[in-house]
Every structure is written in C-alpha cells, then in structure tokens.
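The freezer alarm interrupted the setup, so I double-checked each line after restarting. Inputs confirmed:
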Amino acid sequence: MPSTYNFTTGPSTLPAVGILSYNGCVFSPLFETSINGKVIQDDAKRTTKYMEYDLVVDGFVTLPDNATSTQNTTKQLRQLLTAQAGILIYSGRGIDLKINVPGTLVKDAAWGPMPEVLDLQTLGAGRSAKIKWRVKVCVPEIASTGIFSPVLQFCEEVSVGYGEDGYSSLNIQGILEIPLTRPLQPNRFFDTTVDNFRTQYLNIIAAGIDLTRFRVTRREFTVSKDRRTMNWSFAAEELPPQGLPADMTMARGSFNFRPSKAGVGLCNWLCTLRVTYTVKKTAARREAWLAFLILLRLRMDASRLGLIPTPDGPQNPGLQALNTLGNVAGSGLIQSTISMFQGVALWRRLVERQNQNALALRRAWLIEFSGDEGLYLDSKTMTFSATWKLVTTFDRILVASGLWRYVPSDGGNTWATNIRGISGAQSWLRNPVNPDVIVDFGGG
Amino acid sequence: MPTPFLVIGNENQANGLPENSQFQAGISNYDPPGSPVEQGAFLLGSQEASASWMYYDIALACILDSGIVVHRHLPQVNNNADTLASCFISDPNIDKITGRGVNIISNDEFTDTIQRMAHSVYWFRLYGQAMRIGLQVPIPGLKTVGGVQAIPHDANPQNAWNKIVGNYSGLPLWHAYWSLWYTVAEPPTSQQVPPSNLAQHIAGDVKLPDGMQAPFSTPDDLAQSTNPLQQQTQLQNPIGNK
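Predicted 3D structure, all chains:
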C-alpha cells in the first residue's frame, strides 16, 4: 500500500517534488507547470523595470479520503487561488520563485501575484476535477543599484516650444513608479504611496528650471488609483524683460502716458501706472503695496529728466509781472532749451543734460491714486493704480515718464530664490496624497 | 494609519508639525505689528514751480472806439421796413425754399453823414483763469500794451481772486480768476503778442521749429553698459540710469 500524501488539491500517492503553493494552497505533484516571462520596460524603453512571469498550473484535483465529492476541495481552491497578493512559492522545478514571503525582500512589484484564470473541469461525477490556474507575478530580477531604490522608473519627455513672439515654453512630463504590494494578503491598509517620493524626485526636475529666465505656470501630479505610479508634468514659460517682484507669484499691469488733454499740446502729460499683484500666500498682503510703491517712486522720480521749456519773450506775463509788479511768477522758470545736433554733438549735449538733470528738480504731481482689492474668491489679487501729471517736452517723454525703468530688486536671482520653494514639487501646501484603503466585497 | 478615504493628508503632519497645531502650515501670514514699513517713504512731489500749473487760460481782449459818429438822415421815401427775414414762418413750403438765408437787402434809400468826432480810444481787458497745485496763482498785469504804457482803466474796476478748490493730501489746489481793464493815453505803436500760456509753457512769439525732435530713449536696464573710459568714442547711456 503506497503512502498517501495530502495536499490542498487532494491526496496523492506521490510525494511532493519541490513546492508549489499559493496563498496557503499547496499543490500536489499531479500538476504540470509552465512559466512564461515577459520583460517589462520602463516608459522610455531604456531599461527593464521588472519581469512579468505568467505561471500556468495545469493538473488534477483528487478526492480526499472518505469524501464523496471534491466539492469542499474546489471550494477551498476557489477561495485561495483567486485572492490577490498571496504568498507564492514555486521551487524544486529548476526555477525558484518565492514572492511575498514574510521576512524576505522579494515582493511583487505591482500588487501581485495576480491570479488571472481558474478553470475547473469536473471529472468522475464530482470525484475529481481538472484544474487550470494562471497567476501573474512581477518581480525585479536584477539587483537594485540602490541609487534610486526603491523607484522602479523615473523618466520624462520634454517639449521645448517657441511662440510667435519668440519666447520659449517648456513642458516636462514623465512618470514616477514604485513597487507596491500588500504587506500581507489579508491586509487592506498600507502606508506607502508614490506620493511619498514626490518631493525628493520632482524637486530634482524643478531645480532644472532656471527661474531667473522662466516661471513655472503649471504643475500636475496625478497619482494612480493603485497609488503606485505618478504621472507628473511641469510647464514653464519664459519671463519677460521685467522680472516679478519678490514674493509675487503673479504681477500684471500696464504703464500709460498720454497728453493730459488730447489735442492741446505735447507738453503736459498724464502717466498712469496700474498693476495687479498676486502675493504668495505665505507672504503679507502689504508686499503688493510695497512693490507698487517702489515702482511708482522710481517712475515718478524719472520726471527729473524732464525738460520744461520757458515761454520766454517780452510778453511772458510771468516775467513781465516780475519786472513791473515785483511778483515772482516767472522766477521758477528754467531758462533752458535743448538744441538739437546730429551725431556726436547731440550725444555730448545729452550727456551734459544728464549731468544737469541729476540735480534738476522733479516735475511730477500725483493726482490720482486708487486701489482695487479682490474679495472672497478674488482675494488673491490686489490692484493699485496711480496717475501723475508730468511736465516735459515731447522729446523727453520717454525718459521723464520712466518708461522701461525697472526696480533693480525685481526679477533675477532675487525672485528666483524667493519663489524656488513653492515652484517645485509643492507650493505652500504640500497636499500629501494618503495611502488608500483597499475596498473589496469578496475579500480578495 | 491614515483615516480611510481621507485622500489628502494633514498639512501640518506633512510639514512635520503636530496635526492639531494651531499653526496652520502653508497658509501662515505672519506680519508682525509695529512701525509701518512705509514710514518715511514719501511719494515724490514736484519741487519746480513751473511744473505746478494744471491749466492757464489767459486772453488779452482789445476794444476800440474809433471816434466816428454816423449822422442819420430822416427817411426821404416811404418804402417798406427792412427785415432780415427771407420768408414767413407760416409758409407751407418753408421746407422747400432754397437760395435764401439772411436777408440783408434793404428796401430803404439813404446816404448818411459820417463825421469823426474824436480820436480813437483803446481799451484792453486782460482776463483769464488758472489752476495750480500748491502755489497761488500770481495775477498777471500789463505794463505796456501795443508799445505804449498801459493805464488801469478808470471806469471798469479790476477784479481777481485766488481760491482753494482742492486738497492733494495737504497741498492746496488753487484756482484763480482775473479781469483787468486797461487803456492807453497815446496811440498804440506796435502789434501786441498774445500772452504766454504758462501751463503749456509756450509764448505767442515763439519761432516755429523745423520739426519735432523724436523722444529720446534710454538703454535697457539689463543692458551692459560700456565703460566710457575704455571706449571714448562709444557713446552710450546718454540719459543716465535711474
């Protein structure tokens, strides 16, 4: 009488050669197996992320002693072999696969092993059955270098664009993937997601964007449903000549100069400066005002470079009053006009004028000032507007209005350093994506 | 272990702070009270009186009594009375009338006698108004007119005022009006150039320019200036930096 060996799939008179078990189901020797392996590359097709093995088990369920049917056996098989992320041991057949074994480092990389097929064909009026079971496992086969461990892949594609205005735009998008599976098959909670690696990895990408030349306009980090992969993207656009003030995530505005009254001359001007600021949330709102104030002062101060012609001549009522009535109406008039020369003579004249203007008086009066505070959903923004009256000749309007004059502290390294911390993998909010809980009906 | 279905984690915890800390990570806005940072920051006002004019409206009106009288004779014929009307308002075709306007064709027949009874008399009225920031408007007067001495007119009193019409944060906005009558004791001998406009900074006897000089521009803030000591002939930065 040969010995009988009991297995989850039923008794066998043959002893086990090696081990084939999954999730507590120990297969008898009455099975044949095959393993098909597939290389899974990263998205860039430059390296192997892991091997995806397809283990096919084909064999028989036998009738236990004193049983009249394999019903209880197949019921147990259906429970054990359809559950995901169980412990898989396949050994003694020339190839060893030991996945999710507690205390070992080899875990499935993608929430597996994943049973995919369970075919049952009853035989002998229920006293036996033919079974075919297929499970997929994903395991790294090459030892990690440890440099980027445990990340499976981190690659990106880059798009460099140029608009019709010649300004550049950058789009960088990629994927960050980590291996993840359950600590134990029954466990529905886990404590790691790919988002845990967002700051470490995506800040590397963000650091490559030169914030002295670009500003980041869009960032998206999409975590997959299984919390294992993150599709991420950065978009950046080239900064215009005038850099942003420190602590401002956005600032838009305009500067306008025009004759104070259309059609009656090009000597009295109105200059209007209007800027809308968005202050980063961790900075004080008042920084919008300070940024506006310093720009306003800079541009108004340019009125020193203005030139006021003297209405000289015998009929100047001011001069006349000065001469006849002892009044001082004309005493403030500057007896100067600029003569126009060509070439070098002109430039020399202008340099002389520059020196004179360094000591010259300002010629601007602030005549209008307004603020526009966004409220509620618009409270991110603050708008200031100021208008001053400027007196200068037509030829000096560009310089006396302060056109193209920027505050030295705006833009460049000042802004880049100031904004770096909120232009990478996070803004002032980290918004960590929590690990999810697995919700299933059947407990698989 | 996170709370199930709490997808986005606690921000305080994410920043290494106690979950229930009153300090809210990421949205802090600590702005310590104290002296306003703007203290001592003055907005620049004009320091030049000639730039203080908001507007300046001045005119010199001339009134001439030529000294000539017209002696009218009694009518010699009984013609219809003259009228400037060229049609009657009740005319049903008034909207279709063409070729007529003001009727100045007289029905009368006369030749009056012209007699110069006195020499010409000139009156001049210097009047206008102006607005100025910070400074009162000096009321202008005439010393000479038409090349002869201007004499305040005895019959028409001069009047003028300055009044405050606005407040620019401590700076009064002055409005002035003046009306000054003059006459002369001898015949004017030269043309009178109209008064200059102080707000427009131009006189009536200015020589017309050949053209308008295009506005000067400045080098960009970020442009690298050339060292003038090294390249004397390289002209740059003519206007100066901020």
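Quick read of the result. Confidence is low (pLDDT under 50) at residues 227-242 of chain B.
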